[in-house]
């Protein structure tokens, strides 16, 4: 896809975000409304849901950077809408596209590209968040069946998705050596869901426990067996770039609104932007947003069907973007004064959502540990 085509696609995404979703985003947040299925299918009709998925399975075959650009445009106005594009292009569907069997690809990916179905990733558990390899969920292979038992927590799109890519222990080996992944359909007998979490942000993106009680799925649903956790998490780096882009969009939206506001709002007889302290804050906001953008761009450049991003570059991008979103939205609220603390101006919603993306997919603290591990070429045992 050429630069002109990408710019045209971004323009369409920005137009859809501003005209179709911006008027609804505040109400969906207030009511904790799950993104409507018909709207997901609309995004599928636009081709947004399969941008970075293989053409032979209904996708657009575009570079990852194209999907990230669309995610950013949507996320500046409506995170629940952007989440649909995030989940399909950078989420577990990428695992199927890259590591799944041909049968899995042809069965699942076309439905995701059209918006007919969604897939969520199920990694975290009540006692295994950042320490993902402490997971206890099991997937036992018996003949031509896989039996799944356990529970997953903090599952974005939990209770809403049609498929779950479940990370589970598939042998008695210690740590990551036992972990693989299996697809579990939401309507399988033995699958149930906890109540939807009442989160500070993420309100249009359902989150709930997913519980597996002797759930039987065919062996064809096995994506990767025990001992391939490194491959799974290598692909998960793409999801972290999607996450980084959501944070970038939040920071950019807060910056854009603040640039307008400080030029229009007057105090002591002149626009706010005339005050040096405001200029300093505005400069800091721009510095942080542009730094995050460049780090994401560097990490995503060249990622294609057969290539993965560099783990160090991804951690640098995610840590920076997550913290940028929190800092910039906080500064934006301060520069808006009392107006920044109201729901009317939408900054508090940006700030609430910024904290959610920093928690999802590996916190900034965990990213810092990964950064040092990659920098020094060694791992650190956090359990000692």
From TrEMBL:
GO MF annotations in UniProt: acyl-CoA dehydrogenase activity; flavin adenine dinucleotide binding
Keywords from the named record: FAD, Flavoprotein, Oxidoreductase
Domain Acyl-CoA oxidase/dehydrogenase middle intervals: 120-215
UniProt domain Acyl-CoA dehydrogenase/oxidase C-terminal: residue ranges: 234-374
InterPro entries: Acyl-CoA_DH_CS, Acyl-CoA_Oxase/DH_mid-dom, Acyl-CoA_Oxase/DH_mid-dom_sf, AcylCo_DH-like_C, AcylCo_DH/oxidase_C, AcylCoA_DH/ox_N, AcylCoA_DH/ox_N_sf, AcylCoA_DH/oxidase_NM_dom_sf
Superkingdom of source: Bacteria
Signal peptide positions on this chain: none
Pfam families named among the record's database cross-references: Acyl-CoA_dh_1 (PF00441), Acyl-CoA_dh_M (PF02770), Acyl-CoA_dh_N (PF02771)
BP-aspect Gene Ontology terms: butyrate catabolic process; fatty acid beta-oxidation using acyl-CoA dehydrogenase
Cofactor requirement: FAD
Residue span, Acyl-CoA dehydrogenase/oxidase N-terminal domain: 3-116
Similarity remark: Belongs to the acyl-CoA dehydrogenase family.
Entry protein name: Acyl-CoA dehydrogenase family protein
Lineage of origin: Bacteria, Bacillati, Actinomycetota, Actinomycetes, Pseudonocardiales
């Amino acid at each position: 896809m050429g630069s002109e085509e990408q710019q045209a696609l971004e323009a369409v995404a920005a137009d859809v975000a501003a005209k179709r979703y911006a008027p609804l985003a505040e109400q969906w947040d207030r009511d904790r409304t799950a993104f409507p299925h018909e709207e997901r299918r609309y995004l599928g009709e636009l081709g947004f849901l399969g941008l970075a998925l293989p053409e032979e399975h209904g996708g657009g075959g575009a570079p990852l950077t194209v999907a990230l650009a669309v995610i950013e445009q949507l996320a500046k106005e409506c995170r629940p809408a952007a989440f649909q594009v995030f989940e399909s292009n950078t989420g577990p569907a990428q695992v199927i596209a890259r590591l799944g069997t041909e049968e899995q690809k042809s069965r699942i990916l076309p439905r995701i590209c059209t918006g007919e179905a969604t897939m969520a990733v199920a990694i975290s558990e009540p006692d295994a968040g950042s320490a993902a390899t402490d997971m206890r969920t099991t997937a036992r292979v018996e003949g031509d069946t896989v039996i799944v038992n356990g529970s997953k927590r903090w599952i974005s799109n939990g209770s809403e998705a049609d498929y779950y890519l479940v990370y589970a222990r598939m042998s008695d080996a210690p740590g990551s050596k036992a972990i693989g992944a299996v697809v579990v359909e939401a309507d399988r007998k033995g699958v149930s869901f906890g109540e939807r979490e009442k989160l500070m942000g993420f309100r249009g993106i359902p989150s709930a426990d997913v519980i597996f009680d002797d759930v039987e799925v065919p062996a064809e649903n096995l994506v990767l067996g025990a001992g391939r956790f490194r491959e799974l998490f290598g692909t998960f780096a793409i999801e972290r770039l999607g996450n980084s882009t959501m944070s970038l969009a939040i920071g950019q939206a807060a910056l854009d609104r603040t640039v307008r506001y400080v030029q229009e709002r007057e105090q002591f007889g002149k626009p706010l932007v005339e005050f040096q302290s405001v200029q300093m804050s505005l400069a800091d906001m721009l510095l942080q947003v542009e730094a995050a953008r460049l780090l994401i761009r560097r990490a995503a450049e060249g990622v294609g069907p057969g290539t993965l991003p560099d783990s160090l570059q991804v951690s640098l991008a995610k840590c920076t973007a997550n913290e940028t979103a929190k800092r910039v939205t906080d500064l934006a609220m301060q520069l808006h004064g009392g107006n920044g603390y109201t729901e009317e101006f939408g900054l508090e919603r940006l700030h609430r959502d910024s904290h959610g993306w920093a928690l999802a997919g590996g916190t900034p603290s965990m990213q810092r540990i990964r950064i040092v591990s990659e920098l020094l070429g060694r791992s650190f045992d956090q359990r000692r």
